[in-house]
Design goal:
heterodimer, A: mainly alpha, Helix Hairpins, B: Cytochrome C Oxidase, Chain A, two-stranded antiparallel ribbon, 16 helices, 68% helix
Amino acid sequence: MSGQPHSYYLPEPSPWPFIGSFGLFFTLGGLALLVNDISGAPYVMGFGFVVLLVMLFGWFGTVIREGESGRYSEQVDRSFRWGMAWFIFSEIMFFAGFFGVLFYARMYSVPWLGGLGEKLSTHTLLWPGFEAVWPLLTLPSADGYTEALEPMGAWGLPAINTLILLSSGVTVTAAHWGLVHANRRQLIVGLALTVAAGILFVVLQGVEYIHAYRELGLKLTSGIYGSTFFMLTGFHGFHVTLGVIMLAVILFRAMAGHFTPDSHFAFEAVAWYWHFVDVVWLLLFVFVYWL
Amino acid sequence: MTHATMTHAAHDEHPTWLRRWVFTTNHKDIGTLYLVFAALMFVFAGSQAMAFRLELFAPGIQFIDPLAFNQFVTIHGLVMVFGAVMPAFAGLANWLIPMMIGAPDMALPRINNWGFWILPFAASLLLLSIVVPGTPEAGWTMYPPLSIVGSSGKVQLGGDLLIFAVHLLGMSSILGAINIIVTILNMRAPGMSLMKLPMFCWAWLITAFLLIAAMPVLAGGVTMLLTDRHFGTSFFDAAGGGDPVLFQHIFWFFGHPEVYIIILPAFGIISHIVPAFSRKPLFGYASMIYALVGIAFLSFIVWAHHMYTTGMPLAGNLFFMYATMLIAVPTGVKIFNWVSTMWKGSLSFEAPMLCALAFIMIFTVGGFTGMMLAMAPADYQYHDTYFVVSHFHYTMGISAIYAIVGAIYFWLPKWSGRLYDERLARIQFWISIVAVNVTFFPQFFLGLAGMPRRIPDYALQFADFNMLSSLGAWVFGSAQLLFLYIVLKTVFAGRRTAEARVWDGATGLEWTLPSPAPYHSFATPPVVH
């Protein structure tokens, strides 16, 4: 060999990608069986999910061991950063799709059903009695749907949740400062507070859903308002839950002495992710709850 | 360009069997897996096309009833797009990008392997959906309400398996795309600035961006189909304030970038083959890049040209019409640059060059018919006819195939260290180029005369051209089997070559590596001047 060999870390063959694909197949295949009420479905799905969990532990465990043993050069670190950034971009586009649907319903489909512009004939031929308002409570045809009694307000729990999530953005930044200034106590306390805020957010979101179903009559089946409300907030809540799990892992790793002031990609990746769910929530608060 | 040849003997030991082909973290092995998978899916989806061309050979219903016909075209479209063409380009990306930018491997090798291995499982879900109740039948575009209740009037398992297959295919594409972007941004050899990047890498960089931006939107769309099917949401039901046309917006917001996802890597390949066999550098390198970026940008603001007849407001139709016509500008830049590259070149016509020329001509036919379809008032006549079928087969079907076949002829000697049978390859080329035009050119006229797509029966006046089209299709299909034979023959019994620069006009880092290329492409980064 001549010249300087590459220092880029190339992993040995690994079983985890295949195991992950295998687990995904049974999880999603099982889910397809489950929504069709086919017996045995929970077992298929459960098996797939367990395989997925094993994969996550195995794969992340390997990566953490490699990282802690110092095998990752600065260039590898850059690969991870770019990778995480583009992954978050894909998540942004996922939510953008659902926001697009919300705007389409509010700007076009509901007003058109009410006879806006060129769509007068749609209105008069289909449901002449329909009135286009947002939030849409009275549907063009309630057949098969359950109409909501009241819309979800913005200034109760949702406003409190906004404050909680924004504060968690501050605490995770405080934890980061603790990390880069080699203040492990501040790192751990900041992370613990962030995890607590995340859990509180999810719990309050659950309380709000119960309120929606029991008192407001607002359900997933309440027409396009209920559909967009629950799908947008639901997927956001799911992402917050994932974020909390990721933060908790980072917290345990911080307590185990992982990360150094100049090498802590995993922490930053999770912090980016957390800011991402934070920003999505702000948009949700404005366009789903408030305006 | 470079000075980077080194001894590789010590680097060629590689793992075997399970560790090599299932647990692999090597870009070449993963590239091979992608290409083999694509070939299998191509044969599968192609045989479906052969079957429905049999039904369409004569008017009346002979072999396939209308429902099964719709299932055939649905699966044919989905498998060709997601199972054959996209994986084939991903395989080429895996093989070529590290060799072209002077890297030892892809940036995220395990993610790379995951991106591949999701595919066979996704394909299994898709294929399972054929044999269970509720086989998908709404076309590859999956429009509701047919994709929600199905022709049986019931919500059945097949549709859900398709939805989850699409989720997995999207995941696979996103993982692959992230890996490609990161590799190109972070693994280039010292001195290789972005404006020195080979065109195939540029094309894939843009493609990967399109994938990451478009795929999640499709995932969201099919998720809404799922909840409309099972959980009582009303995204696509006007009775609940939604709109079935909304799904078309979501689908084509993904779908239009998707057709560029398929064709941009092909553009990249042609930009390598044409200069090599013209013995001239690519004409207008920088403008080629700007054209790629322009096409990518425009791809996100033209989606509703697939929906002129859905009753969009006039302003919508006009906007999408003008925006669509703009695409002809960057695309024209590319066509003219390839032609200018050949101008006064020292041309020779080996199989890869024949494929590249075929690509340019076929894509131009596809592009021009695209301009016809882009005109909203004219589209009212062409919409959902065989004119559209022929148009998109010219743009993203056949042209993608010629780019892939050309790329394999061009780079296979580098990969395998063996030469393909040039005579056989030329015979295969001429059979297939004649046959493919016999298949699809008559379909333009069928469409102009008003023959609707997705219908197994047709009026008597369409009989002659359909017969011609079916004959062409069977010859074209058989010719592809000959291509697969040529590849297998090359890999297992081709004449060996030790030449690093297999083609005298070829330039680029991959041609500085020995043939066959070492297991880890550049163990030492080359320096690009």
